[in-house]
Structure formats: C-alpha cells, structure tokens
TrEMBL record:
InterPro entries found in the cross-reference section: Peptidase_M14
Coiled-coil regions, chain positions: none
Gene3D superfamilies in the record: Zn peptidases
Family as reported in the entry's similarity comment: Belongs to the peptidase M14 family.
GO biological process: proteolysis
GO molecular function annotation: metallocarboxypeptidase activity; zinc ion binding
Residue ranges constituting the Peptidase M14 domain according to the UniProt record: 30-307
This protein's name: Peptidase M14 domain-containing protein
Length: 307
C-alpha cells in the first residue's frame, strides 16, 4: 500500500482555517442511509428495549440526525450498568452493526444481572459519509471532555452523566481500516499543519486498554473470545501496533481520559476499545460483526464474574 505525502486540501505545514474545512466538507458525499440501516434496526428492537432519543444533530444542509440508545427494559437501580458504544467514528461499520447485533441476539442474556445501555451509532452524519470526522472536521473520539466541540460527544456525555459511578464496564467498538492510512491520517496531518508519517495497518483484531487503569485479565478474556471468531493482530517488527507498544497479545494502551476518548467517559473499572480489521483478506464483514459481539459478551461476562 502507498499513501500520498500530501493531501489535496490546504498548504503543507499550515493548519486549516475555515475555508479549508469548508472545502473538505464540500467533498463529502452521502453514501448510505442512517435512517434505513440504523434507525430501522433500532425500531425493530423496541419490543425488547426501551429506546431513548438522547439528542439530535442539526447539520444543514445535510439534515437532522436523531441520536438513539437502547436501554434494558427491566432497568433496576440496584444493578451495575454496562455501556456499549458503536459508530463513534461513523465509517467503522462493524462497530455499529456489532452493537445492534449484540442487542438483538444477546441483550436478554444479562437480564437481572446488569443494566445495558447501548448507543449503536454515535456519529450518524459520518456514518452516512463513511468518514471519521463530523462535518466540522472534528474527530468525536478526541472530543469527550467538558465543553466538547463535537455535538456527538457532548450528547453522549450528557446521556451517561446521571449514571457515572454506576458503570461496571464499557466496551467501545471500533475498526482500523486501510483508509486510515490512505485518507484519514493524511487528512489529520493536513488539518493540523503537520507532516504525514506513513505507518501501516495491523492485520487483525486488537484492543486498546486504558493506560491509567489497565485491566490485563479483562483484555485477555476478550482476546480469547474473539480469536475463536477472527485472527488477532500480531506486533510489528518494532513490537508495536499502530505505533504503541504491545503490552500483551493483541493489546496496546492509550490514556483514555487525557486523550478525550469515548472509552474513558464512564469511570468504569473495566473499559476497552476494540479494533477490527475489515480489509483483511482473512476476514469477512460477518466475521467482523461477530468479533464485536464476542468482545461485548466476553467483556460483560468477565466484569460480572469479577465484580
């Protein structure tokens, strides 16, 4: 794979201003339907879950995007809570469908043991455009903090705020794709006026643990479940995955809260970010969805066992 050293918007070495961001947004095209793919699937789950509309994004001229979460119908205040998030980066398709499939096929498995809150598509505008950013060229997954510049992040933070301190586990579902290297990382470098440094894309599933609250046994329980579904990414020649040291098979660490990552929003003891590789010749879309489901099931199961 090769990647261009320059991006077609902006001046190399100069951060984007509003004209460059407008030029970038004008290049984005709607490629699929949030209403048809996601909202319709959520509607089908209304018989089993309470459906909460926790916000609405207004992005003219592209329209308005209601934000939905699924909540355990038999919610109990004496139980701990689990958060499952998908589509924080809208282009990461298996995160969205993995969250929906988990809710549909396994949501009832935990009745009476833990309250489930599932936000399957945090960034619907980006879902439709198969992109990482929102329309303001902001990455929601670097924006989970007070006074967030990303409406997607702010809405989710508001949803979970009353439950902080009650979450036992949070599994945030993501993908690492070839377009990270060919489009999104070059765009990020151009936006910030920095040089693009090609790296590489790991072939396989991996996890990101919280460097400030590492839970290695929890991560390895998820890896053990997922490797029955799809392959685990090996370390590269430097012993790294996407530039971070591999601390255990298929596991790296980021500092969730300082980086403004979604997986850091709950204060839960057990947190992780999954990363599926959908462009692998060794994996199908169905396997990627199944890997996300396996990760959620294993993560919640481990958390309950060790609570």
């Amino acid at each position: 794979m090769t990647a261009s050293a320059t991006y077609p918007i902006g001046i190399p070495g100069t951060a984007w201003g509003e004209p460059e961001k407008a030029q970038w947004r004008a290049r984005q095209r709607r490629q699929r339907s949030y209403a048809d793919d996601v909202v319709a699937a959520i509607d089908r789950l209304r018989t089993d879950f309470d459906v909460l509309q926790y916000g609405e994004l207004d992005y003219p001229p592209d329209g308005r995007f209601p934000l939905f979460a699924l909540r355990t119908r038999a919610w109990r205040d004496d139980l701990p809570c689990a958060l499952v998030t998908g589509g924080v980066h809208g282009y990461e398709t298996s995160g969205v469908f993995g969250a929906l499939q988990f809710a549909e096929r396994h949501g009832g498995d935990f009745d009476g043991r833990i309250n489930l809150l599932v936000a399957p598509c945090v960034s619907p505008w980006a879902y439709e455009r198969i992109h990482r950013w929102n329309p303001h060229a902001i990455d929601p997954n670097r924006s989970f903090r007070a006074d967030s510049p990303a409406a997607e992040s702010a809405a989710l933070l508001q949803l979970i705020a009353p439950l902080r301190g009650r979450f036992l586990v949070h599994v945030d579902l993501h993908e690492t794709t070839d377009t990270d290297e060919t489009e999104f990382r070059p765009a990020l470098a151009a936006r910030d006026g920095k040089p693009f440094q090609p790296d590489g894309i790991p072939d396989g599933f991996y996890l990101v643990d919280d460097a400030d609250n590492p839970q290695p046994a929890f991560q390895q329980a998820i890896i053990a479940a997922v490797q029955k579904v799809t392959h685990i990414a090996p370390a590269d020649a430097r012993g790294e995955i996407i530039g971070s040291p591999v601390v255990a098979p298929g596991v790296i660490e980021y500092a969730f809260v300082p980086l403004g990552l979604c997986a850091g929003i709950t204060g839960a003891r057990y947190t992780t970010t999954t990363e599926v590789y959908p462009d692998s010749p060794r994996a199908t879309p169905e396997q990627c969805n199944a890997a996300q489901v396996a990760a959620v099931r294993a993560g919640i199961g481990f958390a309950l066992q060790h609570a």
